[in-house]
Write a structure and sequence with these properties.
heterodimer, A: 112 residues, mainly beta, globular, B: mainly beta, 6-stranded mixed β-sheet, 12 strands
Chain lengths: 112, 111
């Protein structure tokens, strides 16, 4: 069965370290998205991609980057982790613009 | 920009009670509207959707009707169960922009 997988599920890192969160989907979806979930804020968009080599900034992109070298993967990199980036991160994908998304199970990141 | 406002939680109900979670939106154009559900420790799952005015989305006993005149998409269920305890998110898609979410409403159903 097709799926969308995030790894790791949990990570603890130190302030200032570079961290990469993985997102891999086997749906063959063109569109992929990263959101963060924080209490009182719901889900906020970090970055998204509508195809290979395409990346776009979302509402809360400062301190994060993504790259899209193939259809299946959209890794999220925190260039220099900060305590404000402690959050739960969700990756999602969709077949076409305007369609509902399929979400991964999330990565809980703690920056100490 | 586009936005979604949903009622603050938490909402606590007894089993078999009627559920309403209010959702209103602001958008240019004609958005598609969604309800997602998040069970504890899991990602979000699509619960239902509606793509045009007066459409009714339904799934698992939940319903929501796309009301353009009141810019609303309220979620309802006639008789909730303990297993419905989760966080519910209202969201919209408009044009080429990604999903915009409300802040979520936590529902707790007690036996």
């Amino acid at each position: 069965d097709a799926e969308i997988t995030q790894s790791p599920r949990h990570k603890i890192t130190e302030t200032g370290r570079q961290v990469t969160l993985a997102c891999h989907q086997t749906w063959n979806h063109n569109n992929m998205f990263w959101y963060r979930q924080d209490l009182g804020h719901g889900l906020r968009l970090i970055h998204y991609s509508y195809g290979v080599q395409d990346t776009n900034k979302g509402e809360v992109s400062d301190g994060y980057s993504v790259s899209r070298s193939n259809t299946e993967d959209l890794p999220l990199t925190l260039e220099s982790a900060a305590s404000s980036q402690t959050s739960v991160y969700f990756c999602a994908s969709s077949d076409r613009v305007g369609y509902g998304y399929t979400f991964g199970s999330g990565t809980r990141l703690t920056v100490v | 920009g586009d936005s979604v406002t949903q009622m603050e939680g938490p909402v606590t109900l007894s089993e078999e009670a009627f559920l309403t979670i209010n959702c209103t939106y602001t958008a240019t154009g004609y958005p598609s509207l969604f309800w997602y559900v998040q069970y504890p420790g899991e990602g979000l799952q699509l619960l239902l959707k509606a793509t045009k005015a007066d459409d009714k989305g339904s799934n698992k006993g939940f319903e929501a009707t796309y009301r353009k005149e009141t810019t609303s998409f309220h979620l309802e269920k006639g008789s909730v169960q303990v297993s419905d305890s989760a966080v519910y998110f209202c969201a919209l898609l408009s044009g080429n922009t990604p999903l915009v979410f409300g802040k979520g409403t936590r529902l707790s159903v007690i036996a």
